[in-house]
Structures are given as structure tokens and as C-alpha cells.
Amino acid sequence: MPIHTNLTPERRKTMVEQGVWNDRIITDYLDEAVASTGDKAAIVTYRMADGSRSELSYRELDDKVTRLAAGLAGLGVEKGDVVSCQLPNWWQMTALHLACVRIGAVLNPLMPIFREHELEFMLGMAESKVLVVPQTFRKFDHGAMAHYLQPSLPRLEHVLVVDGQGDESFEQVLLERAWEEEIDTAELFKSRRPSGDDVVQILYTSGTTGKPKGVMHTSNTLFSNIRPLAERLALGEADSVFMPSPLAHQLGFLYGLMLPVYLKSTAVLQDTWLPEESTRILRTEQPRLMLGSTPFLADIAEQAIDHGLDLQSLKLFLCAGAPDPQPLVEKAAKNLPTRILSAWGMTENGAVTTTLPEDDPERAVHTDGVPLPFVELKVTDMEGDTLPAGQEGPLYMRGASLFVGYFKQPELYGVDDEGWFPTGDLARLDEQGYIRITGRSKDVVIRGGENIPIVDVENTLYQHPKIQALALVGKPDERLGERLCAYVTLKEGEESLTLEEVCAFLSERKMTRQYHPEFLEVLDELPRTPSGKIQKFKLREQASQSG
Questions:
Q1: Residue 33 sits in the same domain as residue 148
Q2: Which of 219, 302, 359, 479 is the most core-located residue (most Cβ within 10 A)?
């Protein structure tokens, strides 16, 4: 049964006329890769737990995809059914998505850190028919958790466990049986082929503001992001991609799973982030492109102090996931032999902006880039009127890669009649069209009627020699409305930090006293989403409850 979306005929017509939606699906690109470069490595997987390295050529990957697709159909997966997976960065995840597209099923990737509470909600909402999990990952028994959940999920007919045993084993059920000899796969794939507008991915938002929502994407929305990005970065078959960010996050999914297949290049996957091992992988595999959030960039920059000469193959690092702290980008640029590009995007639309490879490096320090082709941005005042360049306000986006709705929650779509989507971010645009994300709409702290520039204060405090990470939030106050509260984690070896030290540091840098925090709390770690974004809503709750 087709999944209901918010896609309108008018949007479809406009995108096709512009030539940005061409109805091609990922298996079309897989077929081309097999035909033209079948023996080339498609996926190299590094598992940190056992130190193993595995490699699949495009031809080998295609054979596994055919068997998996036929097997899923043999298990009763119909067109439009949801197949969920909670997998690390292993080749099985890429193969599973390709297999789902072959038979018109929908993949629902789930972050490996999710546990019973999150999964029961997500699997229940998705009405998943199949769930694929690892037996163990990072010493956690995912197989046991999945079987614990299954009785509470009546639509979940099959739990398959990678590296599992018996009739629940992913390998035994789907890979060791020659399903393609039992089913006419040519006819199956022809009859089940999804259109460019069929939903192929449901990905839950990270939840920086509360309950996650199931973001729906089609082949047209996903590839209308991948193609312009590849063109902007001048990527080709020789540009292998190193992806340590989770494939179950949109950044990892788009650019670690889909982009290499589109390019006919090689995906190099690392399943657990270990900076020293990452450096070894970079030296061994010689990838040209790496993508990740700011913690990845920080760690690689630290490693590059010792291994700079070994990282010469890494030509591009696309840093996304949160506004890049200025000192971090400057440090990375100094220590990496790599062009660092800043980017901004969302689960709902993939990367929306990037700096350009030919830009002055300062652009990546001070901006989050310019929109990709077929994407528009505007910054408005609180009444919705477009603001002139340089002024901060709510950010709206519209364009080809915008998602087609929230699964089972069409009323939450929020896109107006002209196609504008409220991102929930605050930003300012400069005269050249470069954007700077200045915070979330809910990040605004207004003390005594004055807006505090949160990002500027945070960027300044990131330079403090004791601070590893931080977040500033508002604490409710009867007299002033809000007071500024700082939550920080300390660098290794540091034992304490006082509010007086923080304020003195800001004073030395000539920051007005009105922007100084009035409360400070040192934490062992900050609450984060699976993609590494700090969950400020949790810190606001904590601040409001503290004395």
C-alpha cells in the first residue's frame, strides 16, 4: 500500500520541469557501476571490536543485494512495507537499503545507541515488518533487546540478527539460501520497482526539541541533494569516501551509503569512532573525502599534529551537524593538509548549504556556506517579512531536496503554500548569499529585554584552555526574564573551573558584562543526539529546575 505523503502535483511538476527530479533510483546507479566497474571495491568495512577489514566489489555487492531482496520478498515483505535496521557502519546496511529499493520496500534506519524506550515508539509508529540488528555491538546485546521488544510490536513479524544463530540469523535466513533460484528476480524487481516519488526512507529526527518524527524521503528528494553536492565538490569515480559518522544518520546515509554508489566510487566505513584507528584507516585506504560533525574534525586535527604527512590523500573534509566553533575550524585548518568546508543541513533536506572548494578558508570559519542549486533560503522577522542582509531572524528553506512529510503526521509538515519550510534555526544572510546559523529559535536568551548573542559567546568560550565543550541556555528569572547559564565539560587533566574564571576570560576579550554567564555547571558530558548535536532542551529543563 502506498505511503501517504504531503507531495503535491504542483511541486512534482515544477521539479520535473526544472530537470532536478529525474525519477532515477539508487539501483539504477548500482546497475551502472556493476556494468562498468564491477570488480572495483564498493564498500570497505572496518570493525573496531575485532580489528577486521572486509571488502566487497560492486559485483559481489549486487549478488548479495539480489539474494537479500528475493529473501525479503520470500519472507512476505510487500511494496511499501517498512524494514527497520539498527546497524552500525557495516556493509549489510548499504546492501539492505539497495535490497529494499529493489522490491519497493522502505528502509527505516535506527541509530545503534537507541534502546527499548526509543525503539518501541519508533518501530510501533513505523509498523515495521522486519527488524535487522547486530547480535552485539559495543558490548550491548541488540539481539536480546529486539526479542524482548517483539511481543509488544504485533506488526513486527521477523527479527533477523547479523552474526546471530539459527532461524533468527540474518546470514542463515537471507544469505545462505539461494532465494534468487526460487523466485524470478527479474520479474519481481520489474513489478516492484518504485517510482521516483515513492518513499524509500523513513528517518527519525534526532530529537533536539523532544519527541522524534519520522521524516519521509523519496529517490527524487534524496538524489536532488546528492547530484548538486557531487557537482559542487567536483567528485568522481576516483573520490573514495571515508564515513565514520553513523549511516543511520542523514549525513552518513546520504554521503556514506548513497553518494559512493552514485559516483561508482568506494565507501570506507568505520563502525566505532576511534581517532587513532581513523588515522590508520586514512593512511591505508587513502580516501579523498571525509564527512562528519565537529567532534570528528577536532579529533582528526589533533591526530594530524602527529600524522600530518600521512593524511595527504584527504583533499576535502565537509564539516556539518552544528555550527562550527571558530577556534576549532582555525585549528583544523592549521593542522590538516585538507580543504575544510563548512555545511549546514537537516534530516528533512540533507545538506542545504556548503562553502565552496575555491572559497577563501576564512569562509568556513565565519559562515555555513551558500545554498546548493535548486535550494532557496530566506531570513524573516517574527511577522514573516524577509529581512535585509546581515539581520538575524528565523530561517526558512524551500527546494528540491525538501522531504515529503512526517510519517503518519501530515499535519506537522509546516510547509506553506509557497513551499517554504520553517527550519527552526536562527540565521543571518550576507550580501553574497552566505549563511551563518546563529542558533535554534528556542536558543534565544533574552536578559532584561536584550538578546544575548549565544553563538558569539560560545565561540569565545571555546578558546578557554580548560573547556572541552559547552552550551549556553537561558534560566528563567522573575525579574530579568532569563539569566544565562553555562554548562561545560573540561579537557582531560583539568579538574575544576569557576564562574569567576569564565567571566574574567570574557572580560579579557572585551565582551560586555551583560553577555557573561551568571551560572556555571561542570558536567562529565553534555546530553547529545545520536549525531552529536547538544540537546539544549534538556539543559534548559535542568536549568529551570535548579535553585
A1: yes
A2: 219
Three-state secondary structure readout of 57-92:
EHHHHHHHHHHHHHHHHHCCCCCCCEEEECCCCCHH
pLDDT per residue as tens digits for the range 321-376? 555 566 667 777 777 888 989 999 999 999 999 999 999 888 888 899 999 999 99
- For the whole model, what pTM was predicted? 0.85
Q: Is the same domain home to 450 and 358?
A: no
Q: Same domain, yes or no, for 448 and 349? A: no
Q: pLDDT at position 209, please?
A: 47
Q: Which three cell numbers stand for residue 245?
A: 559518522
CA distances from residue 538 to 40, 261, 324, 456, 472 in whole angstroms, order as listed = 46, 38, 21, 21, 12
Which band of pLDDT confidence, cut at 50, 70 and 90, is reported for residue 16? very high
β partners of residue 82? 106
Q: Are residues 369 and 452 in the same domain?
A: no
- Residue 419: inside a domain, yes or no? no
Is 387 a member of any domain? Answer: no
| SS3 (DSSP) at 372 | coil
- Range(s) of the domain holding residue 135: 22-373
Task: Of 228, 476, 185, give the one whose Cα is nearest residue 343.
Answer: 228
Q: What is the spatial distance between Cα 89 and Cα 68, in angstroms, rounded to a whole number? A: 18
- Domain finish residue from 328, 358, 373: 373
C-alpha grid cell for residue 173?
Answer: 535466513
Indicate whether 446 pLDDT > 80: no
Domain boundary among 373, 396, 413: 373
| CA-based nearest residue to 11, from 23, 3, 21 | 21
Number of domains in the chain: 2
C-alpha–C-alpha distance, residues 244 and 296, integer Å: 8
Per-residue cell: 312: 595527504
Residues 6+ apart with CB under 8 A from 384: none
Whether the pLDDT of residue 450 is over 70: the answer is no
CA 484 to chain centre: 29
Q: What is the CATH number of the domain that holds 299?
A: 3.40.50.12780
Contact 52, 270 (CB under 8 A): no
Cell numbers placing 461: 568560550
**CATH code for the domain in which residue 525 is found:** 3.30.300.30
Q: Do 51 and 149 belong together in one domain?
A: yes
Q: Which residue has the higher pLDDT, 514 or 419?
A: 419
Q: Is 223:372 a contact under the CB 8 Å cutoff?
A: no
SS3 state at 32: helix
How, if at all, do strands 199-204 and 214-218 pair? antiparallel
CA-angle at 74, arms to 72 and 76, nearest 5°: 75
d(CA 356, CA 129): 42
Beta-strand pair 241-243/289-292: parallel
The stretch 159-188 carries a mean pLDDT of: 96
Q: Partners of 218 in the beta sheet?
A: 199
